[in-house]
Amino acid sequence: MKKAVLLFSLLAILAIQANAQKKKSYRSYGTDNYNTALGARVNPWVVGFTIKHFIQGPHAIEGLVTTNHSHKTNVTFTALYEYHWNIGVQGLNMYAGGGAHVGIYDRRDYDWDRYIDKGKGSYVSPGLDGIIGVEYTFKKIPLNISADLKPYVQFVGPTNYLGEEIGGLSARFAF
Question: What is the rounded average pLDDT for all residues in the chain?
């Protein structure tokens, strides 16, 4: 955990230094004042890192790395495409899109039947994700906050834990 905090702090310092140039603005597309944002994503069960980058106009890609609070050996890697549009207030945007994820889960934590049959160990579960949310980027400070719903379907393993990652709040440093 200390290494993750140190790495995140170092990336934040580098981002502040790189922020000296004027940011691009895609105001004609309804998105405001940042190209890339790096931060944290949380909900009552899951915590992780998020990075979002606008590739052109209102089109963005987002990467998530999340883990469960109580089962820290489980990790999910998610890649998303998002389309953004303004909803009437400067800095306030909605977005929607989809993508895929790969989860690495402990059998005992997420798949009790497989744990009983095969014992200890981990398994890999790929899946498809959707996302819809709202975000606000502050004008005076480089902060982007968002709230979203991210339903998904897994192709391997049980589906009784889907509710843990379905929504989240993110706070990102925008540069």
Answer: 80
Please give, one letter per residue, the 3-state secondary structure of the chain. CHHHHHHHHHHHHHHHHHCCCCCCCEHHHCECCCCEEEEEEECCCEEEEEEEEEEECCEEEEEEEEEECCCCCCEEEEEEEEEEEECCCCCEEEEEEEEEEEEEEEHHHHCHHHHHHHCCCEEEEEEEEEEEEEEEECCCCCEEEEEEECCEEECCCCCCCHHHHCEEEEEEEEC
**For residue range 58-109, what is the model confidence (pLDDT) as tens digits?**
999 999 999 988 777 889 999 999 999 999 898 999 999 999 999 888 777 6
